[in-house]
Amino acid sequence: MGYMIKGVYHEGEDISTNLSTGEFERTKSTIRNWITKDGSPGPTGVGNFTAESDRYHLFVAWNCPWAHRTLLTRSIKKLEDHISISVAKPNRNEQGWIYDEKGEFSDPLYGLNAVHQIYSKDPIQYTGRITVPVLWDKKLNCMVNNESADIVRMLNSAFDEFSTDTPDLYPIALAQEIDAWNEKIYSKVNNGVYRAGFASTQTAYETAAFELFENLDAIDEHLAENRYLCGDQFTEADVRLFPTLVRFDVAYHYAFKCNLKKLSDYKNLWPYAREIYQMPGIADTVHFDIYKRGYFSKSEKRNPLGIIPIGPMVDWSKPHGR
Ligand SMILES: N[C@@H](CCC(=O)N[C@@H](CS)C(=O)NCC(=O)O)C(=O)O
Q1: Ligand 1: which of 5, 13, 132 to mutate, judged by most atoms within 8 Å of the beta carbon?
Q2: What's the pTM value of the predicted model, to 2 decimals?
Q3: Which residues are catalytic, by number?
Q4: How far is the CA of 305 from the centre of ligand 1 (A)?
Q5: 138 and 198 part of one domain
Q6: Left (φ > 0), alpha (ψ -120 to 50) or beta: where does 7 sit?
Q7: 86: helix, strand or coil
Q8: Which class for 303: exposed (0-12), middle (13-18), buried (19 or more C-beta within 10 A)?
Q9: Does the C-beta of 59 come closer than 6 Å to ligand 1?
Protein backbone atom coordinates (compact mmCIF):
# COMPACT_ATOMS: atom_id res chain seq x y z
CA MET A 1 0.00 0.00 0.00
CA GLY A 2 1.26 3.45 -0.73
CA TYR A 3 0.31 6.95 -1.76
CA MET A 4 1.01 9.41 -4.55
CA ILE A 5 2.75 12.76 -4.50
CA LYS A 6 2.34 14.98 -7.59
CA GLY A 7 1.55 12.01 -9.81
CA VAL A 8 4.41 9.81 -8.56
CA TYR A 9 3.68 6.64 -6.58
CA HIS A 10 5.48 5.96 -3.31
CA GLU A 11 5.38 2.69 -1.43
CA GLY A 12 4.79 3.21 2.24
CA GLU A 13 3.08 2.70 5.53
CA ASP A 14 -0.63 2.86 6.24
CA ILE A 15 -0.96 6.38 7.62
CA SER A 16 -4.66 6.33 8.43
CA THR A 17 -4.51 5.52 12.15
CA ASN A 18 -4.15 8.52 14.46
CA LEU A 19 -1.10 7.65 16.54
CA SER A 20 -2.15 9.58 19.64
CA THR A 21 -5.72 8.23 19.96
CA GLY A 22 -5.46 4.92 18.11
CA GLU A 23 -8.53 5.87 16.07
CA PHE A 24 -8.83 4.97 12.41
CA GLU A 25 -9.37 8.05 10.21
CA ARG A 26 -10.40 7.60 6.60
CA THR A 27 -8.89 10.24 4.32
CA LYS A 28 -11.26 12.36 2.24
CA SER A 29 -11.58 11.80 -1.50
CA THR A 30 -10.46 14.78 -3.59
CA ILE A 31 -11.49 14.11 -7.21
CA ARG A 32 -15.08 15.27 -7.13
CA ASN A 33 -16.39 16.00 -10.65
CA TRP A 34 -19.84 14.85 -11.74
CA ILE A 35 -21.26 13.21 -14.84
CA THR A 36 -24.46 15.08 -15.71
CA LYS A 37 -27.07 14.68 -18.46
CA ASP A 38 -25.89 17.79 -20.34
CA GLY A 39 -22.27 18.12 -19.18
CA SER A 40 -23.00 21.04 -16.85
CA PRO A 41 -20.98 21.02 -13.62
CA GLY A 42 -22.42 19.08 -10.67
CA PRO A 43 -22.40 20.10 -7.00
CA THR A 44 -18.57 19.98 -6.91
CA GLY A 45 -15.72 20.06 -9.42
CA VAL A 46 -15.87 21.06 -13.08
CA GLY A 47 -18.19 20.26 -15.99
CA ASN A 48 -17.78 18.61 -19.40
CA PHE A 49 -18.62 15.10 -18.27
CA THR A 50 -21.78 14.39 -20.26
CA ALA A 51 -23.58 11.07 -19.72
CA GLU A 52 -22.78 8.91 -22.76
CA SER A 53 -22.84 5.18 -23.36
CA ASP A 54 -19.39 3.49 -23.21
CA ARG A 55 -17.58 6.69 -22.27
CA TYR A 56 -16.92 5.90 -18.60
CA HIS A 57 -15.08 3.12 -16.79
CA LEU A 58 -15.05 2.04 -13.13
CA PHE A 59 -11.93 0.71 -11.42
CA VAL A 60 -13.17 -1.48 -8.56
CA ALA A 61 -12.35 -4.44 -6.31
CA TRP A 62 -15.03 -6.99 -5.39
CA ASN A 63 -14.01 -6.92 -1.72
CA CYS A 64 -14.10 -3.12 -1.31
CA PRO A 65 -17.47 -2.10 0.21
CA TRP A 66 -17.20 1.44 -1.19
CA ALA A 67 -16.69 0.08 -4.70
CA HIS A 68 -19.54 -2.34 -4.03
CA ARG A 69 -22.03 0.52 -3.67
CA THR A 70 -21.13 1.75 -7.15
CA LEU A 71 -21.43 -1.76 -8.60
CA LEU A 72 -24.82 -2.23 -6.95
CA THR A 73 -26.04 1.04 -8.43
CA ARG A 74 -24.62 0.16 -11.86
CA SER A 75 -26.58 -3.09 -11.69
CA ILE A 76 -29.85 -1.66 -10.29
CA LYS A 77 -29.77 1.13 -12.91
CA LYS A 78 -29.02 -1.46 -15.66
CA LEU A 79 -25.85 0.33 -16.73
CA GLU A 80 -23.64 -2.75 -17.22
CA ASP A 81 -23.58 -2.29 -21.03
CA HIS A 82 -22.85 1.43 -20.74
CA ILE A 83 -20.16 1.61 -18.05
CA SER A 84 -17.26 -0.85 -18.26
CA ILE A 85 -15.21 -2.09 -15.29
CA SER A 86 -11.78 -3.40 -14.25
CA VAL A 87 -11.67 -5.58 -11.14
CA ALA A 88 -8.45 -5.56 -9.07
CA LYS A 89 -7.09 -8.62 -7.23
CA PRO A 90 -8.48 -9.11 -3.70
CA ASN A 91 -5.05 -8.91 -2.06
CA ARG A 92 -3.07 -5.70 -2.11
CA ASN A 93 0.73 -5.63 -1.97
CA GLU A 94 3.35 -2.87 -1.79
CA GLN A 95 1.98 -1.64 -5.15
CA GLY A 96 -1.51 -1.33 -3.60
CA TRP A 97 -4.40 -2.67 -5.70
CA ILE A 98 -2.92 -4.75 -8.53
CA TYR A 99 -3.95 -6.67 -11.68
CA ASP A 100 -3.01 -9.94 -13.32
CA GLU A 101 -1.90 -9.88 -16.94
CA LYS A 102 -5.06 -11.73 -18.00
CA GLY A 103 -8.18 -13.28 -16.53
CA GLU A 104 -10.86 -12.02 -14.16
CA PHE A 105 -8.47 -9.69 -12.30
CA SER A 106 -6.86 -8.03 -15.31
CA ASP A 107 -7.48 -4.52 -16.63
CA PRO A 108 -9.20 -4.79 -20.03
CA LEU A 109 -8.92 -1.04 -20.65
CA TYR A 110 -5.17 -0.34 -20.61
CA GLY A 111 -3.66 -3.60 -19.30
CA LEU A 112 -2.48 -1.82 -16.14
CA ASN A 113 -0.44 -3.65 -13.49
CA ALA A 114 -1.76 -1.55 -10.61
CA VAL A 115 -4.51 0.98 -9.84
CA HIS A 116 -1.95 3.68 -9.01
CA GLN A 117 -1.14 3.77 -12.74
CA ILE A 118 -4.60 5.12 -13.51
CA TYR A 119 -4.07 7.90 -10.97
CA SER A 120 -0.75 8.82 -12.59
CA LYS A 121 -2.29 8.72 -16.10
CA ASP A 122 -4.40 11.74 -15.16
CA PRO A 123 -2.66 15.04 -16.00
CA ILE A 124 -3.70 16.62 -12.67
CA GLN A 125 -0.59 15.20 -10.91
CA TYR A 126 -2.61 13.63 -8.14
CA THR A 127 -1.46 13.71 -4.52
CA GLY A 128 -3.14 11.40 -1.98
CA ARG A 129 -4.09 7.82 -1.29
CA ILE A 130 -4.76 5.34 -4.08
CA THR A 131 -8.28 4.13 -3.49
CA VAL A 132 -11.00 2.31 -5.40
CA PRO A 133 -13.53 3.04 -6.75
CA VAL A 134 -12.30 5.41 -9.44
CA LEU A 135 -14.61 6.64 -12.20
CA TRP A 136 -12.57 7.25 -15.34
CA ASP A 137 -13.46 9.17 -18.53
CA LYS A 138 -12.22 7.19 -21.58
CA LYS A 139 -12.82 10.19 -23.87
CA LEU A 140 -11.02 12.95 -21.94
CA ASN A 141 -8.54 10.49 -20.38
CA CYS A 142 -8.94 11.70 -16.84
CA MET A 143 -10.54 10.77 -13.55
CA VAL A 144 -14.07 12.03 -13.01
CA ASN A 145 -14.47 11.13 -9.35
CA ASN A 146 -13.02 8.86 -6.65
CA GLU A 147 -15.75 9.21 -4.03
CA SER A 148 -18.24 6.36 -4.01
CA ALA A 149 -21.04 8.45 -2.46
CA ASP A 150 -20.91 10.85 -5.43
CA ILE A 151 -20.58 8.05 -7.98
CA VAL A 152 -23.68 6.29 -6.61
CA ARG A 153 -25.67 9.50 -6.88
CA MET A 154 -24.57 10.38 -10.40
CA LEU A 155 -25.20 6.86 -11.73
CA ASN A 156 -28.70 7.16 -10.32
CA SER A 157 -29.51 10.50 -11.93
CA ALA A 158 -27.41 11.17 -15.03
CA PHE A 159 -28.11 8.14 -17.20
CA ASP A 160 -31.92 8.18 -17.49
CA GLU A 161 -31.66 8.08 -21.27
CA PHE A 162 -29.90 4.71 -21.09
CA SER A 163 -31.37 3.19 -17.93
CA THR A 164 -35.09 3.30 -18.52
CA ASP A 165 -37.49 1.43 -16.28
CA THR A 166 -35.27 1.48 -13.19
CA PRO A 167 -36.02 2.77 -9.68
CA ASP A 168 -35.06 6.29 -8.61
CA LEU A 169 -32.77 5.66 -5.64
CA TYR A 170 -32.79 9.28 -4.49
CA PRO A 171 -36.34 10.66 -4.95
CA ILE A 172 -36.52 14.31 -3.95
CA ALA A 173 -39.36 13.70 -1.48
CA LEU A 174 -37.11 11.34 0.51
CA ALA A 175 -33.85 13.26 0.10
CA GLN A 176 -33.66 14.54 3.67
CA GLU A 177 -34.52 11.17 5.17
CA ILE A 178 -31.96 9.41 2.96
CA ASP A 179 -29.25 11.95 3.86
CA ALA A 180 -29.96 11.47 7.57
CA TRP A 181 -29.65 7.67 7.29
CA ASN A 182 -26.51 8.00 5.18
CA GLU A 183 -24.79 10.20 7.71
CA LYS A 184 -25.51 7.92 10.64
CA ILE A 185 -24.80 4.69 8.77
CA TYR A 186 -21.55 5.98 7.24
CA SER A 187 -19.84 6.86 10.49
CA LYS A 188 -21.26 4.20 12.82
CA VAL A 189 -21.78 1.23 10.51
CA ASN A 190 -20.02 1.41 7.09
CA ASN A 191 -16.92 3.05 8.51
CA GLY A 192 -17.76 1.82 12.02
CA VAL A 193 -16.56 -1.72 11.23
CA TYR A 194 -13.24 -0.26 10.02
CA ARG A 195 -13.00 1.98 13.09
CA ALA A 196 -13.31 -1.20 15.20
CA GLY A 197 -11.04 -3.37 13.04
CA PHE A 198 -8.27 -0.82 12.50
CA ALA A 199 -8.30 0.69 16.02
CA SER A 200 -4.92 0.47 17.71
CA THR A 201 -6.07 0.98 21.32
CA GLN A 202 -8.63 -0.89 23.45
CA THR A 203 -10.61 2.34 24.01
CA ALA A 204 -10.80 3.24 20.33
CA TYR A 205 -11.88 -0.33 19.49
CA GLU A 206 -14.55 -0.51 22.19
CA THR A 207 -16.01 2.89 21.34
CA ALA A 208 -16.36 1.95 17.69
CA ALA A 209 -17.65 -1.58 18.35
CA PHE A 210 -20.29 -0.50 20.89
CA GLU A 211 -21.48 2.32 18.61
CA LEU A 212 -21.71 -0.13 15.72
CA PHE A 213 -23.96 -2.56 17.61
CA GLU A 214 -26.10 0.22 19.13
CA ASN A 215 -26.82 1.36 15.60
CA LEU A 216 -27.41 -2.12 14.19
CA ASP A 217 -29.85 -2.77 17.06
CA ALA A 218 -31.69 0.47 16.28
CA ILE A 219 -31.88 -0.33 12.57
CA ASP A 220 -33.15 -3.82 13.38
CA GLU A 221 -35.95 -2.31 15.44
CA HIS A 222 -36.78 0.19 12.66
CA LEU A 223 -37.01 -2.66 10.16
CA ALA A 224 -39.64 -4.40 12.28
CA GLU A 225 -42.10 -1.74 11.10
CA ASN A 226 -40.50 -0.67 7.82
CA ARG A 227 -39.67 -2.82 4.82
CA TYR A 228 -36.71 -0.61 3.87
CA LEU A 229 -34.88 2.20 5.68
CA CYS A 230 -37.18 4.86 4.19
CA GLY A 231 -40.42 2.87 4.46
CA ASP A 232 -41.83 1.18 1.39
CA GLN A 233 -39.31 2.56 -1.06
CA PHE A 234 -35.91 0.95 -1.66
CA THR A 235 -33.41 3.84 -1.81
CA GLU A 236 -29.77 4.85 -1.89
CA ALA A 237 -29.69 4.46 1.92
CA ASP A 238 -30.35 0.70 1.53
CA VAL A 239 -27.74 0.48 -1.24
CA ARG A 240 -25.18 2.02 1.12
CA LEU A 241 -26.04 -0.23 4.09
CA PHE A 242 -26.01 -3.52 2.15
CA PRO A 243 -22.24 -3.85 1.43
CA THR A 244 -21.50 -3.78 5.18
CA LEU A 245 -24.22 -6.32 5.97
CA VAL A 246 -23.21 -8.75 3.25
CA ARG A 247 -19.59 -8.79 4.53
CA PHE A 248 -20.56 -8.95 8.20
CA ASP A 249 -20.63 -12.63 9.11
CA VAL A 250 -17.88 -13.82 6.74
CA ALA A 251 -15.48 -10.97 7.48
CA TYR A 252 -16.16 -8.22 10.01
CA HIS A 253 -17.51 -10.44 12.78
CA TYR A 254 -14.20 -12.26 13.06
CA ALA A 255 -11.52 -10.27 11.18
CA PHE A 256 -12.55 -6.89 12.67
CA LYS A 257 -13.69 -8.23 16.09
CA CYS A 258 -17.26 -7.00 15.57
CA ASN A 259 -18.51 -9.97 17.51
CA LEU A 260 -21.26 -8.98 19.93
CA LYS A 261 -23.68 -10.49 17.42
CA LYS A 262 -23.71 -11.87 13.90
CA LEU A 263 -25.93 -10.41 11.19
CA SER A 264 -27.74 -13.74 11.17
CA ASP A 265 -28.69 -13.22 14.85
CA TYR A 266 -30.83 -10.20 13.95
CA LYS A 267 -34.57 -10.75 13.66
CA ASN A 268 -35.23 -8.13 10.98
CA LEU A 269 -31.87 -7.03 9.60
CA TRP A 270 -31.00 -10.54 8.47
CA PRO A 271 -34.15 -11.16 6.35
CA TYR A 272 -33.92 -7.53 5.12
CA ALA A 273 -30.36 -8.17 3.90
CA ARG A 274 -31.47 -11.44 2.27
CA GLU A 275 -34.30 -9.66 0.48
CA ILE A 276 -31.80 -7.25 -1.08
CA TYR A 277 -29.40 -10.10 -1.92
CA GLN A 278 -32.23 -11.90 -3.73
CA MET A 279 -33.22 -8.87 -5.86
CA PRO A 280 -32.33 -9.29 -9.59
CA GLY A 281 -28.64 -8.69 -10.35
CA ILE A 282 -27.50 -8.18 -6.74
CA ALA A 283 -26.02 -11.65 -6.08
CA ASP A 284 -23.76 -11.19 -9.13
CA THR A 285 -22.03 -8.33 -7.31
CA VAL A 286 -21.42 -10.44 -4.15
CA HIS A 287 -18.28 -12.64 -3.77
CA PHE A 288 -18.03 -14.21 -0.31
CA ASP A 289 -14.78 -16.11 -0.97
CA ILE A 290 -13.11 -12.95 -2.19
CA TYR A 291 -14.24 -11.08 0.94
CA LYS A 292 -12.48 -13.72 2.99
CA ARG A 293 -9.34 -13.62 0.86
CA GLY A 294 -9.25 -9.84 1.17
CA TYR A 295 -10.11 -9.32 4.84
CA PHE A 296 -8.03 -12.28 6.04
CA SER A 297 -5.03 -11.53 3.84
CA LYS A 298 -1.65 -11.56 5.55
CA SER A 299 -1.23 -8.48 7.74
CA GLU A 300 1.36 -8.04 10.44
CA LYS A 301 -1.15 -6.34 12.73
CA ARG A 302 -4.35 -8.25 12.04
CA ASN A 303 -3.52 -11.68 10.60
CA PRO A 304 0.24 -12.35 10.62
CA LEU A 305 0.01 -15.89 9.24
CA GLY A 306 -2.56 -15.09 6.57
CA ILE A 307 -4.68 -18.15 7.39
CA ILE A 308 -8.20 -17.88 5.98
CA PRO A 309 -11.00 -19.39 8.09
CA ILE A 310 -13.16 -22.08 6.48
CA GLY A 311 -16.51 -20.81 7.80
CA PRO A 312 -18.98 -19.60 8.57
CA MET A 313 -21.65 -21.20 6.40
CA VAL A 314 -24.37 -18.62 5.82
CA ASP A 315 -27.42 -19.38 3.71
CA TRP A 316 -28.27 -16.22 1.79
CA SER A 317 -30.74 -18.02 -0.47
CA LYS A 318 -33.15 -18.89 2.38
CA PRO A 319 -36.58 -17.23 1.73
CA HIS A 320 -36.64 -13.77 3.34
CA GLY A 321 -40.36 -13.70 4.12
CA ARG A 322 -40.64 -9.90 3.94
N1 LIG B 1 -14.00 7.71 0.18
C2 LIG B 1 -13.67 6.64 -0.59
C3 LIG B 1 -13.01 5.53 0.22
C4 LIG B 1 -12.59 4.39 -0.63
C5 LIG B 1 -11.60 3.48 0.09
O6 LIG B 1 -11.14 3.77 1.21
N7 LIG B 1 -11.28 2.36 -0.56
C8 LIG B 1 -10.32 1.44 0.04
C9 LIG B 1 -10.66 0.01 -0.30
S10 LIG B 1 -12.01 -0.64 0.56
C11 LIG B 1 -8.95 1.67 -0.58
O12 LIG B 1 -8.81 1.65 -1.78
N13 LIG B 1 -7.94 1.86 0.27
C14 LIG B 1 -6.58 1.96 -0.13
C15 LIG B 1 -5.80 2.95 0.68
O16 LIG B 1 -6.38 3.70 1.46
O17 LIG B 1 -4.58 2.98 0.50
C18 LIG B 1 -14.96 6.16 -1.25
O19 LIG B 1 -15.94 5.91 -0.54
O20 LIG B 1 -14.98 6.08 -2.46
Answers
A1: 132
A2: 0.97
A3: 64, 194
A4: 24
A5: no
A6: left
A7: strand
A8: middle
A9: no
- Domain span including residue 14: 2-157
Q: Decide: 247 in ligand 1 pocket, CB within 6 A.
A: no
From first to last of its 322 residues, what are the pLDDT tens digits of the chain? 788 999 999 997 655 767 678 788 878 889 999 999 999 999 999 999 999 999 999 999 999 999 999 999 999 999 999 999 999 999 999 999 999 999 999 999 999 999 999 999 999 999 999 999 999 999 999 999 999 999 999 999 999 999 889 999 999 999 999 999 999 999 999 999 999 999 999 999 999 999 999 999 999 999 999 999 999 999 999 999 999 999 999 999 999 999 999 999 999 999 999 999 999 999 999 999 999 999 999 888 889 999 999 999 999 999 999 9
The full length of the chain comes to 322
Per-residue DSSP letter, 228: B
Under 8 Å between Cβ of 52 and 81: no
Classify residue 68: in a domain, yes or no: yes
Residue nearest to atom 5 of ligand 1 (CA): 131
Last residue of a domain, one of 100, 124, 157: 157
20 lies in the same domain as 110: yes
138 and 36 part of one domain:
yes
Is the shortest distance between the CB of 132 and ligand 1 below 6 Å? Answer: yes
Number of compact structural domains in the chain? 2
3 state DSSP class of 58: strand
Say which CATH number the domain at 24 has.
3.40.30.10
Question: Does ligand 1 lie within 6 Å of residue 197's CB atom?
Answer: no
- 133 and 204, same domain (yes or no): no
- 124 and 12 inside one domain: yes
Q: Report which ligand 1 atom has the smallest distance to the Cα of 148.
A: 20
Evaluate whether residue 220 is within a structural domain. Answer: yes
